[in-house]
Design brief:
71 residues; alpha+beta; 5 strands; globular; 3-stranded mixed beta sheet; two-stranded antiparallel ribbon
């Protein structure tokens, strides 16, 4: 089975998924399609600055952009 995160996943939930499945990268899925890739290192960096952040994908700027969704 492929483990993936929804585009609106909370960073804390993403970190839990990394630990639970012992992986270093997880695909981000939006609308049933892979829209990005999140590494464990990126998730840790983001959680240190914005632990309440959501994973969002901005196809116009970059394959994977992380943004705080709950300020």
């Amino acid at each position: 089975n492929v483990i993936a995160l929804d585009a609106g996943t909370d960073v804390r939930d993403a970190l839990h998924a990394f630990g639970q499945h012992a992986v270093r990268r997880l695909p981000i899925v939006s609308g049933g399609k892979v829209s990005g890739l999140l590494s464990l290192d990126e998730a840790i960096r983001l959680s240190a600055h914005k632990p309440e952040a959501l994973l969002l994908v901005d196809r116009q700027l970059a394959p994977m952009a992380l943004s705080a969704g709950r300020d």
